[in-house]
UniProtKB/TrEMBL annotation:
Residues 22-103 form the YCII-related domain. Pfam families: YCII. This is YCII-related domain-containing protein. Belongs to the YciI family.
Length: 125
C-alpha cells in the first residue's frame, strides 16, 4: 500500500464448548459484543477493510464445527498485526482463538456488489 501498511487476514475460531449457544455466559456475550464494537471502530478508522463470520448451524442448534470469522485489516508490520488481534476483547476473554496471515489481494468485486450486499442484509459494510 502507498501508506506503508500491509493487509493481514485474521481467522477467528470459537472455543469448542461455545458452539452450543445455551452455554454462553453473560461475560462471553459481553466479550463478543465488545469485539464487534472494536471491529466497527477500526473499520470507521480505515483499519479494518472487512470482517464477518460463517453462519451455519447443526440440526441440534449448535454452531457448525467449521464456523469461523475472518477479517482483512491493515497494519504496519507483523508485530503490529499480532498486537491488534491480541487486543481483541473476544480473544483476550478466551472466547475465540485467532490466527494471522499476510494477505495479498488478487481479485475483488466492485462497489456495486458491496452496496447490494449491504442493502440485502441491512449491514453497513
Amino acid at each position: 500500500m502507498s501508506d506503508g501498511r500491509t493487509p493481514f487476514m485474521l481467522i477467528l475460531k470459537l472455543r469448542e464448548d461455545l458452539r452450543d449457544p445455551a452455554k454462553w455466559t453473560d461475560a462471553e456475550r459481553d466479550a463478543v459484543g465488545a469485539h464487534f464494537q472494536m471491529l466497527q471502530r477500526e473499520a470507521a478508522a480505515g483499519n479494518v477493510l472487512l470482517a464477518g463470520r460463517s453462519d451455519e448451524y447443526l440440526e441440534n442448534g449448535h454452531m457448525h464445527p467449521d464456523v469461523m470469522g475472518i477479517g482483512i485489516f491493515l497494519a504496519g508490520s507483523r508485530e503490529e498485526a499480532e498486537k491488534f488481534v491480541a487486543a481483541d476483547p473476544a480473544v483476550r476473554a478466551g472466547v475465540m482463538s485467532v490466527r494471522v496471515h499476510k494477505f495479498n489481494l488478487a481479485v475483488h468485486a466492485g462497489p456495486q456488489t458491496w452496496t447490494a450486499l449491504s442493502e440485502q442484509d441491512g449491514s453497513s459494510r
